[in-house]
Design goal:
Layout (H helix, E strand, L loop, with lengths): L1 E11 L2 E12 L3 E5 L6 H9 L5 E9 L2 E2 L5 H6 L2 E4 L6 E5 H10 L10 H14 L10 E2 L5 H15 L3 E5 L7 H14 L5 E5 L5 H4 L4 E6 L2 E6 L1 H10 L1 H9 L1
Parallel strand pairs: 3-10, 3-11, 6-9, 9-10
Antiparallel strand pairs: 1-2, 1-4, 4-5, 7-8, 11-12
Helix pairs in contact: 3-5, 5-6
Length: 249
């Protein structure tokens, strides 16, 4: 069981961004994508999640054999896909507690109601693990949050929703070292044979805490090289020019 991307081609307007990308990440594994600015990493994440600004002009994305491109974004979420954004959105007027509760309720069979007592017990337990003040339950989603608080809130949502696949777009962006450790520990607690992760990052430092099974290098809208964790260490030491030059040769 996996998310499989085959010969994916994506435009923004008339501009090609992803140019025949192939990638598979299965349940039970963490795959990392690294690459220079403008390589299409965040575009890939948004296309997987169903962002409407991107035009898929070719290729396929399937999740456990089901065509993701035929689903709206909310359908993808209910089917088990989770997206953590580089810049999490603010939702004024909607509290964290109500937002997560509504998302969980939407996943229940018609006519079944979420148990409020059990819900808050689980919510508080997950917040404690992420060192989040329980007052955040009554605050509007991400409104007035620091960068670190927004990222913890994304991991809280993931912990409550328990997706089958999670795409984390630059989760380390804007985090100090303490927040990075807490967020990474939250991700690591979610690692499971029943869950796959795609982690997008510029920096190797995140991969010291969330150790990937596979590292992919993306350039020019394609995956140009894949390897184990040692590939990320080589990139940190030698830079992207090294792998680009070697690929060209």
């Amino acid at each position: 069981m996996s998310i499989e991307i085959s010969d994916l081609k994506v435009n923004i307007g008339d501009q090609p961004i992803i140019k025949g990308l192939n990638l598979t990440f299965p349940k039970g594994e963490v795959h990392a994508i690294m690459g220079p600015n403008g390589s299409g990493k965040s575009t890939l994440a948004k296309v997987i999640s169903g962002h409407e600004d991107y035009e898929v002009i070719g290729g396929k994305i399937t999740m456990d054999g089901v065509d993701l491109l035929e689903m709206e974004a909310d359908e993808r979420s209910r089917e088990g896909l989770f997206m953590a954004f580089q810049y999490p959105h603010e939702i004024p007027g909607v509290t964290n507690a109500n937002f997560i509760r509504a998302a969980l309720q939407a996943r229940l069979p018609k006519g079944e109601e979420l148990d409020a007592v059990a819900y808050y017990k689980q919510l508080y337990a997950e917040m404690d693990k992420l060192e989040m003040d329980r007052k955040f339950t009554g605050r509007a989603v991400n409104e007035g949050f620091s960068g670190g608080e927004k990222k913890r809130n994304e991991i809280l949502q993931m912990a409550m929703l328990k997706p089958s696949y999670a795409v984390l777009d630059e989760t380390d962006s804007g985090l100090d070292i303490d927040a990075l450790k807490v967020v990474s520990e939250g991700v690591n607690r979610m690692r499971s044979p029943e869950r796959g992760f795609l982690v997008i990052t510029h920096y190797q430092r995140l991969l010291d805490y969330i150790v990937p099974d596979v590292v992919h290098v993306m350039k020019g809208g394609k995956i140009i090289r894949s390897g184990d964790k040692s590939l990320a260490l080589e990139l940190e030491e030698r830079g992207y020019d090294w792998v680009l030059d070697e690929t060209a040769a």
